[in-house]
Amino acid sequence: MLNRYARAFFTKVFTPVARLFLALGISPDVVTIVGTLGVCFGALAFYPRHEFFIGTLVITAFVFSDTVDGVMARMSGRSGKWGAYLDSTLDRMGDAAIFGGLVLWYAGGGDDNLMAALALACLILGSVVSYAKARAEGLGMTANVGIAERADRLVATLVTTGLVGLGLPEIVLATVLALLALASLITVIQRMWAVRVQALAEL
Does the pLDDT at position 201 exceed 80? Predict the structure, then answer.
């Protein structure tokens, strides 16, 4: 949902930033890499210490690089397979760092096995959601279905985690993580079914 309705808005917002970076000679790949490093730093340096609000602010400051690099690539005429590959690969790293940071806190100082398990489920299932689509495309099929898109999962997690850092009861985060894990599982099943239908149609 966010992919459909927010992309155009944020593209317009970050176009001046993209234009400035290009004028400074910065490449889209550099923005992608720096953005991912910033997300990983924010998640792994602050979340394991239960500094959820600060960590979320740092992550948010870098997470929009995913939009900026795309705008830069289109403006410079450098959109291509390498940029798309780099972007999607590093996106997975950033997502894993976010949920991994939550796992580290709740499996350690947070001492909450249920929360750790929910965050771990989101990490694993989120990766499988992405893999299910990538593998389908590698086989010449499509799997552009599902109720849990990456942007939706990311926004829900960051907003809730940041608010928990400001005092929101952790039961809210537990509920969000449980729903995201369930939605991710459903998405995996939807994508597997879509590929199965296409594969059977080719027989």
Answer: yes
Asked if 81 and 43 count as a contact pair (C-beta separation under 8 A), the reply is no
| The overall pTM is greater than 0.85 | yes
Distance CA 157, CA 124 (A): 15
Active site residue 91: yes
Which candidate in 66, 69, 91, 95 is catalytic? Answer: 91
Q: Could you please report the per-residue DSSP string of 97-149? A: HHHHHHHHHHHTTT--HHHHHHHHHHHHHHHHHHHHHHHHHHTT------S--
In 3D space, the residue among 50, 162, 169 whose CA is nearest the CA of residue 106 turns out to be: 50
| Amino acid at residue number 105 | W
Q: What is the mean pLDDT of residues 94-116?
A: 97
